[in-house]
Amino acid sequence: MRSVIVAACVAFVLTLFGTPFAIRGFTRLRAAQPIRDINTSHAGKRGTPTMGGVVFIVGTVVAYFAGHLVLNTLPEQQIAPPGPTITGLVLLGLMVFSGAIGFIDDFLKVRKRNSLGLNKRGKLILQLIVGSVFGVVALYFPATNGQTVGSTHVSFIRDIRWMDIGKVGAVVLFLAVVMATTNAVNLTDGLDGLATGASIMVLGGYLLISFWQYRHWCADVRSPTFTSAYCYSPRDPLEVALIAGAAAGACVGFLWWNASPARIFMGDTGSMALGGLIAGMAMATRTELLLLVLGLLFVIITMSLIIQIVSFRTTGKRVFRMSPLHHHFELAGWSEVNIVIRFWIIAGIGVAVGLGMFYGDFLRVAG
Q1: 157 found inside a domain
Q2: Greatest CA span in the chain, whole angstroms?
Q3: How far apart are CA 289 and CA 157, in angstroms?
Q4: Could you tell me which of 94, 127, 150, 250 has the fewest CB atoms within 10 Å of its CB?
């Protein structure tokens, strides 16, 4: 646990004190977030630098290695891998390369001085490449004990035994989860601090889940809490906890500057990076379907856009004043701070319910 705490603290300090340098640097480069004319309530945000996701991506990666330095000095290293693992490669790779797609999108927006950025086809192709590559790594590169980062089973709180979809099917599912989550977090990033705060809660949820799995890990038969009746079989649960702690700490430090009124935006660089990381954690902890509960706010916001599109194309009428959902409430007269806080409450409820379901299953099996 000490390695996880160290990683979280290092990431927090790096982003808290590193973000002001990024603000000044991106401001000098005139990397300002383009504001759509249709959303006049955000006109005052013109000139605010974007691409802030670079800060917490770097903070997470640096903190991950700092956590491993601590891990190598602890007795935990007898059970947990002493160095970076394939699990770490997949999770951080998803974060970095998904963030790189977002960076290209942000760069094009800044260069063209409009909100169009990377076209949908280009973004889709790049997401397919990133998701497929890391999906293959997750399913086709086993450890010495034969375990892989991903599973060939569809999972909820654990692998669902009768839903074995094979390696090819698992890669396709991995790809679908990555694409859905990156775009969902990206849609949520529309108000100051909204996506950052919601992501902190989800990452915190995965920190608790993965550390609990580590404490009841099937590979750790020497643990005093080990019982074969309710052990968990993910490949490297402590590794997932380490990265979740680092990412959550980095986002908390970034939120200091991203909360309303934001001094910097995470941009697509940050939102897509967080989406890719969260998707990878869902796969690595065998909780793909539970992500729909843990990421309740992301699901609601994504569904609001889908409902708006379907309704307009089939009936010519809009269900919401504007989508995604948070913009609907802006046009309804809610203040930005009220929307963010209330949506954070929804995100927190989703995480609390998801953790309750996870622990409830543990009690059911253990009992």
Answers
A1: yes
A2: 63
A3: 8
A4: 127
Q: What is 108-164 written as a DSSP string?
A: HHHHHTSS--S-HHHHHHHHHHHHHHHHHHHHH---TTS--SS-SEEESSSEEEEEE
Rounded CA-CA distance 171/165 in Å is 10
Report d(CA 187, CA 304) in Å as an integer: 10
Let me know if residue 133 belongs to a domain: yes
For residue 298, being part of any structural domain is answered with no
- Tell me the Ramachandran region of residue 178: left when phi exceeds 0, alpha when psi lies from -120 to 50, beta otherwise: alpha
Give the CA-trace dihedral at 174, 178, 184, 189, to 10 degrees: 160
Q: Residue 240 falls within a domain, yes or no?
A: yes
Domains in the chain, number:
1
Q: What is the pLDDT of residues 306-343, one digit of tens each?
A: 999 999 998 888 998 988 999 899 988 899 999 999 99
Separation between Cα atoms, residue 193 and residue 327, nearest integer Å: 14
Sign (positive or negative) of CA dihedral 63, 214, 279, 345: negative
Taking alpha carbons only, the member of 366, 357, 364 closest to residue 231 is 366
Range of the domain at 108: 2-292
Tokens 């640096």 correspond to 62
Q: Output the six-digit token pair for 355.
A: 């953790």
Contact 157, 287 (CB under 8 A): yes
Confidence (pLDDT) at 73 = 72
pTM of the model: 0.92
- Cβ partners under 8 Å of residue 70, min gap 6: 2, 3, 6, 7
Phi-psi group of 199: left, alpha or beta (phi > 0 → left; psi -120 to 50 → alpha; rest → beta): alpha
